[in-house]
Amino acid sequence: MQAILLVGGFGTRLRPLTLTTPKQMLPVLHRPMVEHVVSGLARHGVERVVLALGYHDEAFRSAYPGGRCAGVELCCVVESEPLDTAGAIRFAYAASGMEDSRGTFLVANGDVITDLDVSEMLRLHRSAGAEATIHLIEVEDPSRYGVVVTEAGGRVSAFVEKPPRPAPSNWINAGTYLMEPSVVGRIDGGRRVSVEREIFPAMAADGTLWALKHNTYWVDAGTPQTYLRVQLDLLDGRRGPAVAGVSPEASVDPGAVVERSVVMAGAVVGEGSVVRGSAVHSSAVIEAGAQVMDSVVGSGATVGQGARVTDGTLVGEHFDVEPGATLSEARVPGAV
Ligand code: GDD
Ligand code: MG
Q: Nearest residue CA, atom 8 of ligand 1?
């Protein structure tokens, strides 16, 4: 099976971290997000992954110069301008030579970390004779997702992207799809096309779209809260054995408190400081007496002495938070 991974978005909800590093190259624990996604696909038999790139494509290409990632062959294709999700699928399908194989292929949003069983999805896809099959997850608040209504056997009767409340269902598009080549034929060339706003609604109307409801581990790591949550879940052992968050190559003062946090290689955590529920990226410095709670400190950034950084604050790469400053739900630097 071959897969197209959509990784060309701007990652606006994770700015300013994504101004310098594209979302899927941000670290999740100690590896880039994309490696978690690719190794998940590899566990389910995907042998070749096409990265559909655009924004900051060079970050991916320089990270995997040998054309392999997590044991899988990588092929990189770059849109000259963003084509949106369906436009990206059409472009990647042609540019990577996938059209020669004419088989069923997989597509995934590059920020989705899941334990989905692709083989189960493939069984439904085949037995239903579907043109495409999408994975669904049940959530409490579906408003920021694609909302899907299905018939008893799994055929999709409606697909509405980010609907106004109340949404017609609590089952949402979880961002992994199996597709037949005919789906590509539905996508216009030469313009932006959204798979969620245009292609899936048309297929639902035609009765050719199916869905697998499967409540397994699933996080879209594209917001500050979920980007932290996916890492805390790994630390807490919610996806297999608990893993250590503090890199052996980080320097944590014995007089500092680090709890449920990721502290990456080269980071320094000073005396009397507290880091809780947070991610401190490589070579960042948390000075003495500073507090970092439920926040992300980007690579090479500094949180000055006695400063307080809390509640989903994102500190951009190489930014210096002044000693004594208080930041809550902040993004620094701000709009650039
Ligand atoms: N190559 C390319 N080109 N990739 C793109 C483009 C583009 O123009 N636009 C977005 N992407 C990539 C993003 O990088 C991301 O990996 C993926 O497409 C989805 O975009 P997001 O911006 O993360 O979308 P979302 O989270 O608001 O919504 C999507 O995911 C939800 C589940 O997590 C939709 O698919 C929803 O329907 C779904 O419920
Ligand atoms: Mg997303």
A: 84
> How far, in Å, is the centroid of ligand 2 from the Cα of 222?
5
Which-ligand-closest: CA of 135? 1
- 58 C-alpha to ligand 1 centroid (Å): 19
Name the 3-class secondary structure at 156. Answer: strand
**Cβ 84 under 6 angstroms from ligand 1:** yes
Note whether residue 228 is domain-resident.
no
Indicate which CATH number applies to the domain containing 36.
3.90.550.10
Query: Does any domain span residue 171?
Result: yes
List, for residues 167-194, the tens digit of each pLDDT value. 889 999 999 999 999 999 999 998 999 9
Q: Atom of ligand 1 at shortest distance to CA of 53?
A: 1
What residues contact residue 231 under an 8 Å CB cut-off, 6+ apart? Answer: 28, 29, 245, 262, 279
Furthest C-alpha separation in the chain: 64
Q: Are residues 179 and 99 in the same domain?
A: yes
In a domain, 239, yes or no: no
Nearest ligand atom owner, CA of 192 = 1
Place of tokens 């699933």: 218
Judged against a pLDDT cut of 80, whether residue 336 lies above it is answered with no
**How many separate domains does the chain show?**
2
CA of 85 to the centre of ligand 1 (A): 6
Which residues form the domain of 250?
244-332
Strands ordered across the beta sheet of 268-269: 251-252, 268-269, 285-286, 302-303, 320-321
d(CA 46, ligand 1 centre) in Å: 20
Token pair 């449920």: residue: 260
Please tell me whether residues 17 and 102 are part of one structural domain.
yes
pLDDT tens for 103-125 read: 999 999 999 999 999 999 999 99
The Å distance, Cα 6 to ligand 1 centre, comes to 7
Our CA dihedral for 306, 312, 318, 319, rounded to 10 degrees, sits at -60
- Are 170 and 276 in the same domain? no
- Report the nearest atom of ligand 1 relative to the CA of 13: 22
